[in-house]
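Worked example 2:
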Amino acid sequence: MKRRKIFCLLSSVFCLLFLHAPAFPESLDKRVIEHTLKNGMKLLLLERHQSPTVATTIMFKVGSVDERTGMTGTAHLLEHMLFKGTRMLGTKDYKKEKPLLDEMDKIASRLDVEVRKGERADKAKIEKLKSGLKRLQDGHKKLVIKDEFASLYSKSGGVGYNAGTSRDMTSYIISLPSNKMELWAAIESDRMKNPVLREFYSERDVVMEERRMSYDNNPEGSLFENFLAAAYLAHPYRNPTIGWKTDIKFLPKIEVERFLKTYYAPNNCVVTVVGDINPKEIIKMMERYFGDIPPQSIPERIWTEEPVQDGERRIEVEFDANPSILIGYHKPTLPHHDDYVFDVIDFILSSGRTSRLYKKMVEEKRIAVSVSAYSLPGSRYPNLFVFNGVPRAPHTVKELEDAFYEELEKLKNEPVSQKELERVINNLEAAFIRQLGSNRGMSDTLAYYNTIAGDWRYIMTHIDEIRKITPEDIMNTAKKYFNKDNRTVAVLVKKEGK
């Protein structure tokens, strides 16, 4: 999740400071109710009675970073599959459906094996298997109730029903009337207990098409994918969350089911409920619906540490599109002190029309159509601070790149004035105040920081740490990380002849 998105989430949290409590840290610390079920499921509950609504977030600490080599895209495909229903939901008759699902798995497995042979494949056998699979799929469609989860929520006043997979986590969200909480508990506990990965092979094709649209046939997506693959040599942050094309094409259902059983466990998730609730009643309800889900043995999360970069890496990506550039520098993640400093650097350089990059490169020199800076691709492990820009014709990518470096040299060698630093801090706090607090913002923020930082209380100390940052901290951090040997540059260039 990009740092700017986190600030947006935090805005609702800090708005509560000014709207509902005289002393933010102490107030929120007392108001958030924590409870852990016997199976390890963590609950974070916050009672707010501004409206008769509730926002819920179920966040699993699993993303594409947890996938095995050759199985990239598993977490993302699984997110798709868990909208397909359970043994009770999404089906007209699961007893009739189950034999068809089993037969489809057998045929699809044989088809994948044959197609993988490439030039040595038996084309007649492939066509026969495809025909058999399609026949079963056509028969199976008659037993499926499409989008039953969404339909039930919509009929009950639910809004914002969605899910998302990143490199770090997977989350499922819904906002609904507070008197529909038991419906939510019944649906979501059933999803965890009895998921059915129906329509698996057709959905795999859907994800392949999604990849074609977002990466293969998209200049920005293609540049971003190649950029991360160059910036990371060893760490799985180099892999796209959607997965590599050949991995998606042959992802075995048995592997996705293994991933589901391993990581979609109560002891690997946090559930946040914010809004018009009685926490004691919610805890009883959670015990009743979720308490019997067995915990799992979560694999130890040790990955190859990304080696220190020992020289600039540069790549070009050819595309029939306007040129653009990505420049990334390796940096630590939270709770490292330098990560706080990068939050301030982010706002100094790229926060709106008053930021340094926009004023210099877009308004004054007029060499760029757009410029931005942010942290990516995740936050569980050390990440990148990235600059992105699109040159304004007839200016070149080279001019844009040099202008970025010029601004970084200023940051290294010229102390940020106390006035500018105070403006940045004030703007951060003003953004928190301007945006009204929402159940959704609070729910997502609590879940996010509990997953990434290991404790939702990180949000209470964040601004205090930001206020301690000095101009010298900014200069030292810039000198430490914004160096050529720590830099990866990816340029989108026109294909020759285009």
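The chain has two domains: 3-290, 313-493. Residues 1-25 have pLDDT under 50 and may be disordered.
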